[in-house]
Amino acid sequence: MSQAQPMPQLTVRAVLLAIVLAVILAAANAYLGLFAGLTIATAIPAAVVSMGVLRLLGGGSILENNIVQTGASAGSSIAAGVIFTIPALIILGYWQDFRYSWVLAIAGLGGLLGVLFSVPLRRSMIVEEPLPFPEGKAAAEVLKAGENPGPGLRILAFSAAIGGFLKAAAASGMRLIPDSAAGAGFFGKYLGYMGTNLSPALLGVGYIVGLNIGIVVVSGGILSWNIAIPLYHALFLDSDPVLAQSIAGAGAEDAAFAIWSAKIRYLGVGCMLIGAVWTLFSLRKSLISGIKSGLSAARSSNSSQVVHHTERDLPMKWMLMALLLFTLPLLALYQAIVGQWFVSIPMTIIMIVAGFLFVSVSAYLAGLVGSSNNPVSGITIATILFASVVLVFLLGSDSPIGPVAAIMIGAVVCCAAAVGGDNLQDLKAGYLVGATPWKQQLMLGVGAFSCALIMAPVLNLLAQAYGIGAPTAEHPNALSAPQATLMASVAKGMFGGDLPWTMIAIGGGVGAVIIAIDEWLKARGSSFRVPVLAAAIGIYLPLELMTPIFLGGLLAHFVEKARGLKPGDEEARDRIHRPGTLFAAGLITGEALMGIAIAIPIVVTERSDVLALPPSLQFGKYVGLVVLAVVAWLLYRSSTRSAMARE
Predict the structure, then answer these.
(1) What is the per-residue pLDDT across 335-350, written as a single tens digit (0 to 9) for each?
(2) How far apart are alpha carbons 480 and 34 in whole angstroms?
(3) Could you tell me which residues come within 8 angstroms of residue 234 by beta carbon, excluding any fewer than 6 positions away?
C-alpha cells in the first residue's frame, strides 16, 4: 500500500528563512547570556515570524513553518553552548580575542555532535515514554493556530521596539536611565543590600520561566545577598584581613559586591556541583533507556520493514560515519593545544562519552522543564570537573595548559548538550504536527552550523564594546559572563589555583538541603518544586538580576489568576500565555539586538560614552523604576486583553 506524500517541508525558502532567523537569534541570545547568565528558547517567536513571512511569499504549510522554527531554534542552543564556556579562555588569559576558526570548530562540531547524540533518544522520550516538552508542545499549538499570524507578529514587533528603545536609552547608550536601581547601607556590623536591574529583557525572561522558577532564583539571591553577605561582614570579615583592607572606606554597595565576588558567590559553585552530580544520579534510568533506544533504532534502520515518514530518523550507519568525521577535527584541535597524543586521545574519548551521557541528561531535563530552564551550565561543570581529574593525572596538578584543556572539553560537550536538548524539543513539536524527524534533524544541524559561523565576530564585538568578565577601568559595566567565569574558576582551581574551598563545601551542603526539600515536595505531590540548579544560579548571580525575573514570573501568575486558569490545565495555560510569551520574547530580542547595534559605534570610536546625552537630560533610578513598571503593565495587558489569548 502506497503512503500519502507529506506536505512540503525542506523547501528552499524555509531553509533560508530558518538560517536568517537562527543567526539573528543566536546573536541576541549571546548578548543576553553574557549579560544575565540566561538564554531563552526561540522556537515560538521563530514560528510566528515564519508564518507571517511565508504567507507574504505565497503560503507556507504547517510543516514548512515547523522546519523554520526547528532551524531557528538552534540560535538559542548554540549561543548557550558558546557563551557558557568559550569566554573562559579570555578570562583565563589564554586568548586575547575570540579566534574564528577555533570558535567555529568548537561550536559547529559540538552542535552537530549534539544532533547525532540526540537522535537515538527520540523514540524513548517522545514516542514510547513521552515527556511533556513544554516549549515543544507550545510551539506545536502556535503552528496549529497559524491561520492568523498577524496579531502575533504585531505583538512581537511592538515589544521588540520597546526593548530596543529602552536598551538604547540605558547606561550603555544614551544614558537617559540607569541600568539598575539599588540601595545599601551599614546597620552596625550588618550590611544590607537590595536592588533590581531595570532591564525589560529580564522581566520577559521571568514571564517565560514562570513564578515557580522566579521564586527559586530570587530566593537564592536573597540567601546570598541578605543572609550570607551580611553574616560574613559581621562575623568573619575581621579574620580576612586582605578582603577587609580592600573594602576599607568603601560604600555599602561596593562592599557588598566585593564580598560577593571574593567569597559568597562560591556558595553557588558548590551548590551547582552537588546539583550536577545529583542530576546525573537521578537520571541514570533515562541514560540506560537512551542507550537501549539507540540500539533499537539501529536494528530498525537495518530491517526491510516499511517505516512511515513520521518515524524516519537519520540512518544509524550514516550517523556513525558522521560521528567519526566530526570527531577527527576535534582530536586535531586538542592535539594542537596539549601537543601530546597520550593526552589528546583521552581528551577526545572523554568528550565523546561525556557528550552522549550529557546530551541524554539535557534532553530529559528539556522534556521536564523546557529548554529555557535546562541547567546546561551544571552539566558542563560536571564535565570540566571530571576532565580536570583525568588531566591532573596526565599533565600534573601544576600544568598551565590543564585548565585550558578542561575548558575545551567542556565547551564541546556544552554545545552538544544545549543542541541535544533543543533538538528533542523541536522533535516533540514535529511529532505533534506530523513532521518527518530526519528532516528536522538535518535542519537543526544546518541551523546550528550557521549560528557557529557568526559567533566569533559577535563575541569580539561585544568584548571590545563592553568587556567580558570582571569590571575594569576601561569597561566598568562589563558583561559578567557568569557561567564562563565560573567555568574558568573551577578549571583553574583544579590545577593549583586559589579557590575558597570552604565556601564551595558550604555551598555543597546548601545544595544537599535544597535537594532534600525538593524530594520532599515531590513525595507530597506538590506542584511547587525547588530545582537545585535554578537555586544555584540565584545564589551565584547578583540579586539585582534575579529581582526582575521574579517580577516577570509574578506577572505570569497574575495573568493566570485573571484568566481563571484551572490547576493542571496545561493546554489552557499555553493558550493564555501565548501573547505574553511573544511580548516577552520581543522585549528580549529587541534589547539584545540593540545591545549589539550599540556596540558598533562604541568599537569604532573607542568611546563608551559616544551615544551619551548631556547630564541635564539624564534621569535617575526612580524614573527607571517607573519605566519598568509601565513595561510590566504592557506585558500584563498583552496577555489579558489579546485576542490570541481568547482563541
Answers:
(1) 988 888 988 999 899 8
(2) 6
(3) 188, 189, 190, 191
